[in-house]
Amino acid sequence: MASAQESPKKRIVWTPELNKQLFVTLINCLEPSAINYFKVAANLGEGFSRDIVYKRIYDIKKKGVNMVEKSTPKKRKVVTDADENS
Known about the structure:
Blueprint: H1 16-29, H2 37-44, H3 50-63, H4 81-85
């Protein structure tokens, strides 16, 4: 059996997929009573409540997490009177 000194350590590259896996694992390892939902909501900022944070963590535990970036809708060109007259 090779000693720890003989085996080279592999450097971990934190990809978005690994970050997602770490996040989900962390959430799944925590007991609900260990999470301060009010503090999490306060750190997320205005518009977040304890209930919103609780539901999101519950959904992540039960359904998994979707971290797909949503694309923004394409801007439509607004036709003005000047454009119509040219």
